[in-house]
Design goal:
Layout: E1 12-16, H1 20-31, E2 35-39
Parallel strand pairs: 1-2
Keywords: FAD, Flavoprotein, Oxidoreductase
Family: Belongs to the FMO family.
InterPro entries: FAD/NAD-bd_sf, Flavin_mOase-like, FMO-like
């Protein structure tokens, strides 16, 4: 990934929320040399992909394994396995 002209990796960056998008953002920022930190209000990461019985929070069902295509729902550097 190339940084656009004028964008530097100086300073600190906070990623608020460590669901799937926050985790991907944090990973890419760190790979680009930013001093980045992830902040999550829950005691777990994963956002709605983390099962919880707490009725005040949105989550997957306890029996959910995956609800998207493994060909289109993975990251290029962390693909799903064959099974």
């Amino acid at each position: 990934m190339n940084n656009p002209e004028g964008i530097t990796s100086e300073g600190k960056v906070a990623v608020i929320g460590l669901g799937i998008s926050g985790l991907a953002s944090l990973k890419n920022l760190l790979e680009q040399g930013f001093d980045a930190v992830g902040i999550e209000r829950n005691d777990y990461i994963g956002g709605i992909w983390h099962f919880t019985e707490d009725k005040q929070k949105t989550s997957v069902l306890e029996t959910t394994i995956a609800n998207s295509s493994k060909q289109f729902g993975c990251f290029t550097d962390f693909p799903f396995g064959d099974n």
